[in-house]
Amino acid sequence: MEQEKQQKSEEISDDVRDLVIARLQVLAPGKLISFGGGEQTLTKEELISHVEKGDELGKKIVEIEMTFLRALKDGIVLDQVLASL
Amino acid sequence: MTSKSLLVTRPEHDPATRYLARWSEPVLEEARKKGVRVVDLHKKKASPNRVRGILEKRSPRLVFFNGHGSDEVVAGHDNEVILGEGDKEAVEGKILFARACKSAKKLGPASIANGAVAYIGYEEDFVFSLNENKVSRPLEDRTAGLFLEPSNHVVIALLKGHSAGEANERSRRLYGTNIAHLLTQEGSEDYDAVKLLYWDMVHQVVCGDENAVF
User: Which of B127, B174, B191 sits opposite A33 (nearest CB)?
Assistant: First the structure.
């Protein structure tokens, strides 16, 4: 049962990873992203590579993407944006 | 009567710090226009001894750090630590804004415990996107401006007399305005910046007295 649960969670993680990679692939050419704390300025290809490897930076990229998507889904982004206008 | 003073640290040793340093120039200009005494520690001048010396001896009311950071420290040129959790005299009575990663998580509350009045910063990584072909001319990079203009506004609002809480809120509203603009602009090449703007907006916080003014 526990193993089944863990396997399911890993499957979800794979789905999330694939979703994040798909979104990164449409990043406009010539754009770089700076992650100040890691002193890194990364290209699209480097971002995707970190997500594929699942290293610390890759996990951070996933977290940033999913934070936005969840807030968008829950209507939080819209509320915050409307409040700013 | 002593004039109001602002200390700005602007290390510049990699693309990220070059962007932060150059995009701080409009803030320096605004401060000078308002007659504020500005101490600008650019490049190698943003060293631990120099920064701590100014903080302790000249005691500027407002401090604007730019550079790399972590939960516990803010760094200067070549990533040398210029402020840490143990710095007490350096932060006493001051309003601090750190445009650096994560420092509002632990260093912010520690600075308040050490006597700072207010500490504005980011609880998570400060991220921004930029254009590869503008790296040598950061101020012409409108993509980076989507992030750096709202964060500049923290200091600009403080210079205009707004409280720390209002300055943070006004800055966050500018992030929101940029997000709204990108979400409604069909086919924008900066559409992907929306998630990063949202990240910075929600993680920019105030520790300490939100009513503190410069």
Answer: B127
pTM above 0.90, yes or no: yes
ipTM, two decimals, is 0.90
The answer to whether A35 contacts chain B (CB < 8 Å) is yes
Question: What CA–CA distance (Å, rounded) separates B83 from B87?
Answer: 6
**Cβ–Cβ contacts within 10 Å for residue A66, how many?**
14
**Would you say the C-alpha torsion B24, B25, B30, B35 has a positive or negative sign?**
positive
Q: With CB atoms and an 8 Å threshold, state whether B130 touches A39.
A: no
DSSP B213: -
What does each of the 85 residues of chain A score in pLDDT, given as a tens digit? 555 555 544 444 888 999 999 999 999 999 999 986 556 899 999 999 999 999 989 999 999 999 999 999 888 887 877 777 7
Verify whether the Cβ–Cβ distance A39 to B192 is below 8 Å. no
